[in-house]
Every structure is written in structure tokens, then in C-alpha cells.
Design brief:
Elements: E1 8-13, H1 19-32, E2 37-43, E3 52-55, E4 61-63, H2 79-94, E5 99-105, H3 107-110, H4 116-124, E6 129-134, H5 138-145, E7 150-153, H6 156-169, H7 181-185
Parallel strand pairs: 1-6, 1-7, 2-5, 5-6
Antiparallel strand pairs: 2-3, 3-4
Length: about 190
């Protein structure tokens, strides 16, 4: 399932760090350079029911939290909403991507659920993946990835260095940007 070419990276963060800002800024810059980044980054907080995610390929913000219930404690992630977000990412991934970003690796992904299937789907299509992994979940991540992952610090320089290495080793032909006969005839 995983590839030894280091096209799978874990952006490992501590509680005081903001992996979402790092990933969001990186995705915006890549998209501005004409690359196609597919995936999502977290927005809002789980504890106050504002938990949401921004789809990187469309900019759309999706609510991921359950509707507010004062009797509920802990994270109020709505699994149906998470799966809906995953389906939308899978649809975008089917149209092609240069990079997939997944906002978090947590207990659902550890158990092969949540958005874990998107990691596998992207790697099966030779599309690099970066995922935010809390330092407290890193041992689970290594098991999930079968040890075939790059560990990145939670900063833009580490992410950029990894990306340059991936792009330098990419041997896929780059399509020239000139119109096809069908585009001219339209």
C-alpha cells in the first residue's frame, strides 16, 4: 500500500502548534503556482461545535461538528459529515491532483476508518500525500503507514523541502499547455 519513495509525509505537531495554518498556506501557494491541491484542512474547534474544514480544491467550508448538544462532552465530530467531506475529496481526486492534504490522522484513521481510504487512493494513483499527525498519535501513524513515511516538523520550511524533493524525483512527463484540436474547434 505504501511507497518507499517518501511521497507520504506526516506533518507532526505539538499542542501549541497550528498545522492547519501551515498546510493551508502551503496549499494556497501551490494552487497559485498552477498546481492542483486536493484535500482539506481543519477550521474551528471541536470543543465549541465550530469544527469545520475547508476543501482546498474549491475553498468551500464544511461543518464537521454535530449540532450543538449541551449534554455532550468532548469532540462532537459528526461522522456522516466527515464521510461527506471524504466523498467530495474523492470526487476531486478522481479528476487529478498534484498533492493530497488530509487535515488530521486520529483514532478513526488509525482504525482504518475516517479519511484513511483517501491516503491509500492517492498513493495508489502516485499522488503525494501530507497529513497532520499529532505527536501523541505518531506511533499509531508509523504502524498505519508501515514505516513508509517521512516525518516533518510542523513548519513551512520542512514542508517545502519535502515537496521540492518529491517534485525533483517525479519522472512523470509534464504536459505542455497548448490547446488540443477539440479545444480549438469549440
Amino acid at each position: 500500500m505504501f511507497d518507499a519513495q517518501c511521497d507520504l509525509a506526516a506533518l507532526v505537531y505539538d499542542p501549541h502548534q497550528d498545522p492547519d495554518a501551515v498546510l493551508r498556506g502551503f496549499a494556497l501557494d501551490l494552487n497559485a503556482r498552477g498546481l492542483r491541491v486536493v484535500g482539506m484542512v481543519q477550521a474551528g474547534q471541536c470543543a465549541d461545535s465550530s469544527l469545520s474544514a475547508v476543501l482546498l480544491h474549491s475553498g468551500e467550508k464544511l461543518l464537521l461538528a454535530q449540532d450543538f448538544d449541551p449534554a455532550t462532552q468532548g469532540c462532537r465530530l459528526d461522522l456522516a459529515r466527515l464521510q461527506n467531506a471524504g466523498m467530495r475529496i474523492a470526487e476531486a481526486l478522481a479528476r487529478g491532483a498534484d498533492l493530497v492534504i488530509i487535515n488530521r490522522f486520529g483514532k478513526r484513521e488509525r482504525d482504518g476508518k475516517g479519511l484513511a481510504y483517501l491516503v491509500e487512493r492517492a498513493l495508489d494513483s502516485d499522488i503525494p500525500v501530507v497529513i497532520a499527525v499529532g505527536g501523541d498519535h505518531f506511533a499509531d501513524w508509523i504502524k498505519f503507514a508501515g514505516g513508509m513515511s517521512v516525518k516533518l516538523g510542523c513548519d513551512r520550511d520542512a514542508l517545502e523541502t519535502w515537496w521540492r524533493g518529491i517534485r525533483a524525483s517525479d519522472t512523470r512527463p509534464v504536459a505542455e499547455s497548448h490547446p488540443t484540436v477539440c479545444e480549438i474547434v469549440k
